[in-house]
Amino acid sequence: MKHLLLITLLLGSILVKAQGIYGFTNSGMETWTSNTSISNWTLVGGSISKVQHIKNGASGAAIKNEAGSAGKLVAAFPFTAKVPRAFFDYKFTLGSTSAADTCLIDIMLTRWNTGTSSREIIARVVRSGVYTDFSWQTFSYPFTYFNTLVSPDSCFIAISTSINAGFNVGTTLSVDNFAFEAPNGISASNAKNTSTSVYPNPVKTNATIIFELRKDSKVSLQISDVTGKVIDTYNFERNAGIQHEQLNVENLKSGIYFYEIKSADDLKTGKFTVSK
Known about the structure:
Elements: H1 2-17, E1 21-22, E2 32-34, E3 37-38, E4 42-45, E5 47-52, E6 59-64, E7 72-78, E8 85-93, E9 103-113, E10 118-129, E11 137-142, E12 144-145, E13 154-160, E14 172-181, E15 197-199, E16 206-213, E17 217-225, E18 230-238, E19 241-248, E20 255-262, E21 267-274
């Protein structure tokens, strides 16, 4: 638990210093066609189902080993930034007490090498998990760059419930909230697909809400509870760019809360969890 708390605190600190964060379509696992189909992700093996992310009440994806094949979910999309770090949430549940499965999350930044007529891996993050990762955890991992002289053109993500030859039926890997830290020096106008997020989440005392303003604006930040009751409202003015607003929740009880950020030309909403 102390290790998890340290990771969470470090994650919050890292994002406060960052210029911004990159998301991608359905990186938060929120858009489901049905309970067994999620857009922009392809199921290669096993089964997939919509799962409630108990850490913040959002929807995640549970990939499970079935009798015919181990669970595997993949995504591929254009991506051109040399990002330093990846973030994601996951938990790993074994199919039986005697199971010995090992899960794997593999994130690759690649480019087409015209000289060799092949796809080259520019940078990579690999996270393997075992039975001790049975509760939702937030991970922050630096990319290992194999070629720092060029930029990627694509990102590939492969999520494997088991890399064991003798996988166990029922073993499940649940994932949510994939994001990348934007590299230093990237301006708000160039940081495409920046997402609105709260870190750490869940939060005990202090959190940071990260969002982008496309132009200078007056901003209203409103916090409400699950009944719709407005708890706090903050009004301020900010210049265009990535914003990092500090939020003190010491006076809030444990539970799920919602935020609404209104600016001159935009409205952003989201949720976070207070855990005392």
